[in-house]
Amino acid sequence: METVQGLLTRRCTRVALHQVRYKKQMYRNRKPPTWASQVALDMFDQYYKRQFGTRWSSIRLALLSEPKHAALVNNYGHAPEAVCAYLEALGAVDIMDANVQQALRPVRRAKRGVQGAAHVATVQEETKTVEHSWSEESMYDDDDDDVPNPVTGEPGLTGGVSGQDSPVSLPDIPTNLRLLSMADTSRFPQAKPDPDGILTYYVLDAASVLPVLALNLKPGDIVLDMCAGPGGKTLAIINTSVSLSGIIANEPKASRCKRLNQVLRLYLQRGLSVQKGVKVTSFDGCRWGKMSPNSFDKVLVDVPCTSDRHSLTHDEKTNIFHVSRLRERTELPDLQVKLLSSALAAVRPGGEVVYSTCTMSQMQNEGVVYMAMEHANQTSNILTEVADVSNLVQFFQQTFTFSEGCRIGALVLPSLPNNWGPMYFCRLRRIN
């Protein structure tokens, strides 16, 4: 006769076997986890394929590839010229200088054409005329020191040979803004502090500087950077070295505001923030239009967005496409419209607002601009117009790949030769 202990042992064995079979069946039927980056890629394939057509495959490949990096040299560190020389020794190229030289090529070709025509004419003239033409010829020597300053726009930049070159229209680029890039996707070494403990350069996407340049800063301007964290664009504004009357760097999110303060502390000498009139705040950006209406000359609104490149490579917990952030993602366009409308109310009549994102979505870019302009008009009777940024596009066409389908503003598309962005920016001017 079987003992009680034997019965219990057999029963426990059957229960254990049953649990094993149940777990196997449960795991067999379970779907694999869906990562936020894969959700983002699936949505991009569905949406951007309609937007870009056959071009999407190359943009997709660039998004999934290693991006290029640029170094914004800190003008307030020790010996920025030596820092530039150090970076150039590593193989970096000055983006600003390279585009200036590219933009001046039509001018030089035009000068060579004038020089050649003058030489033919002098063959048939008297000695006095020949001597005079020689002196004129020396004015068009192909030496870089004789090329007019492209920033100040002195005479000579809009010249051209009729029927050969179109006039050159250069944007007002700050002469001392140094932005260096590697020819490939090599990373810059970590910036080291100078003798004063100030970091010498800040690594960022070169396209991030375009919204700052689109602000067209002038001496005496009061600037609001409405969504300033983590601080790269604020640092670029300061490094333009334009004598601004004040800069308010606002970041409502606590973690990004902490990073913003850290950047300003690491890249600016002690007391320089106060001297430059830099003030860090942490208000809701949607409130600035009511708190400080008609108060700023320039406003930069780098709004939260789906951040296309980061969504494909970012940490799972902070990815905007994570299932826990579904509501936040769907409400992004509404938030963007509110932020831009607030900026249009905060800027003075005649002032300018630059709206920027790091997404290629037409809804979050051009769609938000149109809706915000209409919203500002209906709610606050504010009239705005879209300002032209084609001079920036023309100036940087050798560095960035710009979308040809933008109706307003400009969009930098990722591409394997120029793997920057995406970065959209649009400049609005308040009329009344």
Automatic annotation (TrEMBL):
<feature type="domain" description="SAM-dependent MTase RsmB/NOP-type">
    <location>
        <begin position="123"/>
        <end position="431"/>
    </location>
</feature>
<keyword id="KW-0809">Transit peptide</keyword>
<dbReference type="InterPro" id="IPR029063">
    <property type="entry name" value="SAM-dependent_MTases_sf"/>
</dbReference>
<keyword id="KW-0808">Transferase</keyword>
<dbReference type="InterPro" id="IPR049560">
    <property type="entry name" value="MeTrfase_RsmB-F_NOP2_cat"/>
</dbReference>
<keyword id="KW-0694">RNA-binding</keyword>
<dbReference type="Pfam" id="PF01189">
    <property type="entry name" value="Methyltr_RsmB-F"/>
</dbReference>
<dbReference type="GO" id="GO:0005762">
    <property type="term" value="C:mitochondrial large ribosomal subunit"/>
</dbReference>
<feature type="compositionally biased region" description="Basic and acidic residues">
    <location>
        <begin position="125"/>
        <end position="135"/>
    </location>
</feature>
<protein>
    <recommendedName>
        <fullName>5-cytosine rRNA methyltransferase NSUN4</fullName>
    </recommendedName>
</protein>
<dbReference type="GO" id="GO:0031167">
    <property type="term" value="P:rRNA methylation"/>
</dbReference>
<feature type="binding site">
    <location>
        <position position="284"/>
    </location>
    <ligand>
        <name>S-adenosyl-L-methionine</name>
    </ligand>
</feature>
<feature type="active site" description="Nucleophile">
    <location>
        <position position="358"/>
    </location>
</feature>
<keyword id="KW-0489">Methyltransferase</keyword>
<keyword id="KW-0698">rRNA processing</keyword>
<feature type="binding site">
    <location>
        <position position="302"/>
    </location>
    <ligand>
        <name>S-adenosyl-L-methionine</name>
    </ligand>
</feature>
<keyword id="KW-0496">Mitochondrion</keyword>
<feature type="binding site">
    <location>
        <position position="251"/>
    </location>
    <ligand>
        <name>S-adenosyl-L-methionine</name>
    </ligand>
</feature>
<dbReference type="InterPro" id="IPR023267">
    <property type="entry name" value="RCMT"/>
</dbReference>
<comment type="similarity">
    <text>Belongs to the class I-like SAM-binding methyltransferase superfamily. RsmB/NOP family.</text>
</comment>
<dbReference type="GO" id="GO:0008173">
    <property type="term" value="F:RNA methyltransferase activity"/>
</dbReference>
<dbReference type="InterPro" id="IPR001678">
    <property type="entry name" value="MeTrfase_RsmB-F_NOP2_dom"/>
</dbReference>
<keyword id="KW-0949">S-adenosyl-L-methionine</keyword>
<dbReference type="GO" id="GO:0003723">
    <property type="term" value="F:RNA binding"/>
</dbReference>
<feature type="region of interest" description="Disordered">
    <location>
        <begin position="125"/>
        <end position="168"/>
    </location>
</feature>
<feature type="compositionally biased region" description="Acidic residues">
    <location>
        <begin position="138"/>
        <end position="147"/>
    </location>
</feature>
<feature type="binding site">
    <location>
        <begin position="227"/>
        <end position="233"/>
    </location>
    <ligand>
        <name>S-adenosyl-L-methionine</name>
    </ligand>
</feature>
